[in-house]
Amino acid sequence: MTKNYIKFKNRIIFVHIAIMLIWIGFGVRLFNIQVINRLNSPQGIKVESINGLRGNFYDVNGKNLTQNLTFYRIGVHIKKISNTKNLIDELSSCTGTDREVYIAKINSGRDYVELEKKTNKNCQQLQKKYPNALIIKKSFKRYYPEDNLVSQIVGFTNIDDKGISGLEAKYNKFLEPVSGSKLSKRNGLGDRISDPTLPTEEAKNGADIVLTINKEYQAILRDELILQMKKVGAKASMGLILNPQTGAILSMVNLPDYDPNSPNDFDIELQKNKIVTDLIEPGSTFKIVTMAAALESNIDLNDEYNVEGPYNFHNIKMIEDSEPHSVLNVKEILAFSSNIGTIKIAEQLGKKSIYDQAREFGFGVKTGFDSSTEPAGIFREPSKWSLSSMHSIPIGYEVSATPLQIAMSYAAIANGGFMLKPYVVEKIEKHDDTIIQNQRNTKKRVLSQSNAEKLSLMLSHTVENGSGKLANVAGWNVAGKTGTSKKLIDGQYSEKEFISSFVGFFPAENPQLLCLIILDSPDASRNLHWGSMSSAPVFKSVMDRVINIDKSITISRSNKEKLKNEPILIQKNLERKIEYVEMPNLIGKTVRDAFSELKRAGIKPQISGRGLIVSQSIEAGTKIEKKSICILKAELKE
Asked: Which residue range forms the structural domain that includes residue 354?
């Protein structure tokens, strides 16, 4: 021990004591902050998320198409479990999940594991028993109360409530809620300490979306399609109901469909809204293009054409009609769906006229319903047509379109000549009570009012007297057209599988509803592949039921029955100049020659059979009034 140490001993001891006291003070302070009470430290404040509700879908009448069910997410801090066996037993008893599932997750080696992602069992009472080990968070699961009914329209969400299909995906940014938050204080042991002064930010629910879909219409259309598929042996079907005056879609069905509550149990192909995404060859429903072009080119509805088959089209193909006729006027050509007559009118009009009218009707152009999923279809420019295109395109081949495109072309006729953009969302109602209303699209005129009315009358005649008879709704004027097209399989047209269709609207005087029916591969062996036999009856059965539930469709009831009881006004003493012609001898002549001779004479022929004329209803040499009708019979001679 040195003299210096002895000299400064007291000072050294004082410094040591001072340093020790300082460190003890730091320790006490640190212990106080870290363990005893962390209230005044930011480390003791925890931010907890508050979940809002996802917005819901409603039909046009305010009926729920989706719901949010309350579910719970359960997790556990492994190291904080005081009695693992008891916790597992109690949790298994609460949720109904096998305890072995929980044991496997707890033995995963992680510090924190999620035992339940979404359970509807409320086990929050266990959180009080295991406050530090067990974490239970309330969440919400999407539920579709109508199951399959609107599955391909609305779509579904994933387990994290994100839209991944249909309108759920398209409008996810509107439907998603804005999460809120709240602050909570915890002490050094992790226990929560109440403090009402801490701020809270409330969650904001997602926007609700009101659709134009009518749930009752949807159920009727789906029911009738299911019944008809079984009846005619079809593989699949599609149906669409819309308001032709606005473009609002009231019902849209694709069968088979799927249940959005368990989408993984179904083929992913069934999630597609094929009315919007899939292409078909329209067949005879496309004949309105040729007829509209004819009217725009001032061809008279009473102009007659020889439609005797088979018609040799430029030595390329022999064209025949499903129902043979000899002479038909323009209105009858559409009514009886004559391929020969339609092709002859198209040849008279030329490629450009057909092409321009088809484009005006929206073929080869997206409807604008959903630009991300719908195709434009296939409709080539006239420069790319072959000679055979003129016998295919006018009757709906070498053309592909979505069912929605076909429906919208008929809507343009129903509403007086305007092309509309179809839509299914009526309005979006946000959490702050602001409403985003669907903006009505600008109408584009594609057909004159006069010609739209004439075409509507032609389609009414088709239902009343032609191929659409089975679509007739008693007491109403219905306008529509049947279609039958061969399916293209492995690059060749099938003789056994067909697409059967019907498009119609009513009341024809002031159309309020338009309905498209498509059946895929009805049984051709039973002659059910024709649109007139399989699809037209569905239109009738659907509309019969719709009329019964929707009393708003009453203002345009047909006046047919009233007209029968009204007095007929007779004007007397009106002079009319009558022109007479001599009936020629047609026995032994071909149908074509007989037709030509009668037309020159101003006599209207009605010819049955093929080959040479064997009888005529008016004797040769007889003086008859011009425009009289002569019935001819033809037979094939050996």
From this structure: 215-225+236-256+274-565
